[in-house]
Amino acid sequence: MKCGFYDLKIDDEFKRFTLPLTSEEYEQLEANIKIIGCREPLIVWNKTIIDGHNRYEICNRLKIPFSIKYIVLHSREQVLAWICTNQLKRKNIGIETRRYLIGKKYNLEKILGAHMVAGTDHYVRRELKPYKYFGSKFDDSVCKTKERFGKEFCVSTATVARYGDFAQAVDNITEIEPAFLLAVLSGQLKITHNQVVELSELLPEEIHRISTELLTKRFNESTPKKMLKTSIPKKISENVEYSFQVKTLPKYDPDAEILGLAFTIPSWISSIKRVRTMVKPIELSENARSRLNEKLKCLKIEVENMISKLEEKD
């Protein structure tokens, strides 16, 4: 453990798991640090904070030294699972937060467990392949993880799986609307499990539209449910055949096409930024490097073509 001043990295995904303090809680924390200093060490992985973001901000602003404790973990999945475990120890977390953290940790440990069973050398990788790519023979590993979580958190295995679906749906929506996770976990947005899952299955532009409407207005507890009921299209049963005539097709709207594309691009940018800041070139295999380079060049060409198209006068 070291003490002093350090320039540490902030990872947006890691920070999202730390719910912001209320103004009263933040002021109390700042007052305590002024009087007795920063007593608890900041937990750091690869020079990146994984616990202690508020203390880091306060200490830097007030020029108060702080201590850090390095933790050895081998992948982002392990880091995120550790953060979930650490946050679940808090006594003041709400029901939505607890449900999400259990589900998120379960989804992460399914991946980690599959790699362990497969003997995959995940210690040199930053992100692991989802367990589903390993095939059905790893289902036993997933079942054991589900049973372990059920005992640990005193819920049924079905509930564990349901929490996992909820967490994945929240993550999918958050990729498009970053403020969604905090709104759900803080309890500001009251929304059911089924509504979250249904919202996550819509087209990106619909997810953006509905989640923006939910987040930019002040609702009472019944409003989001009512709004989602009317906003989320009902699913069409796969067992029912429908026939459509040409005259019933919607009128082509070029603006809708452009706006739909515009809504999806921020998630591409976010993914590219995250990978760019996370991956070290020296760690890349030649195959991964060449494949990504080829795809980025194709993307660059299409982007330039699209810009040229938009600049056309007639």
Rg from alpha-carbon coordinates: 23 Å
How many angstroms does the end-to-end distance come to? 66 Å
How much helix is in the residues? Answer: 55-70%
Main sheet: strand order: 1-4-2-3
Architecture overview:
By secondary structure, this protein is mostly helical. 60% of the residues lie in helices and 5% in strands. It has 13 helices and four strands. It has a four-stranded mixed beta sheet, sandwiched between helices. Helix 2 (23-36) crosses helix 3 (53-62) and helix 5 (95-118) packs across helix 7 (157-176). It is globular and about 65 Å long. The chain starts with a strand and ends with a helix. Mean pLDDT is 77; it is low at 121-137, 218-224 and 235-250.
List keywords for this structure.
314 residues; mainly alpha; four-stranded mixed β-sheet; 13 helices; 60% helix; globular
Provide a short characterization of the protein structure.
Helices cover 60% and strands 5% of the residues. With 314 residues, the chain is mainly α. It has a 4-stranded mixed β-sheet, sandwiched between helices.
